[in-house]
Amino acid sequence: MAITILVVNGPNLNLLGVRETDIYGEGTLDELMAGVSAHAESRGAVVRHVQSNVEGDLVEAIQAAAAGGDGAADGVVLNAGALTHYSIALRDAIAAVDVPVVETHLSNVYAREDFRHTSAVAAVCVGVITGFGATSYRLAVDALIDLLGG
Fold first, then answer.
1. Which residues are marked as active site?
2. Pick from 98, 112, 106: which is nearest to 80 by CA?
3. Cβ–Cβ under 8 Å, residues 80 and 103
4. Cα angle for residues 66, 127, 150 (degrees, 5° grid)
5. Tens digit of pLDDT for each residue in 36-89?
6. Nearest to 70 by CA among 88, 86, 92, 48
7. CA dihedral of residues 141, 127, 89, 35 (deg, nearest 10)
8. pTM: predicted TM-score of the whole model, two decimal places
9. What is the pLDDT of residues 74-105, one digit of tens each?
10. What is the pLDDT of residue 6?
11. The sheet that has 45-51: what strands, in order across it?
């Protein structure tokens, strides 16, 4: 059975291609997810993705990844957007599930504003990949596939 990876995108990532293109690029979220899905498929994995501007939706997606059923996933790629820096609820959801999570960012958060240098979720993730644009997501998918033995 193929490895299933859930990609969870947080607030404002639905505005990719419009929002701060000098930082995030001109590609849309749909284009990004199509590329990530194609990359995963080339490695024999399947990607599902969810985007929400609502913190609770992201928590529920992470919980569902571990719960089985329609929302189940073997691993999670998480770009929580601004929630990365202050969401204890997301941190606790990640800590509560037995599913590896890779924190991912399009931009190099350490080359940006000071408040972006702190992650509330990094300590409970298996790793962090940041600063490589769309490649950050592909690297996160590769890391999960390798970690899961795919």
1. 24, 105
2. 106
3. yes
4. 60
5. 999 999 999 999 999 999 999 999 999 999 998 889 999 999 999 999 999 999
6. 48
7. -20
8. 0.94
9. 999 999 999 999 999 999 999 999 999 999 99
10. 98
11. 45-51, 3-9, 75-79, 101-105, 127-130
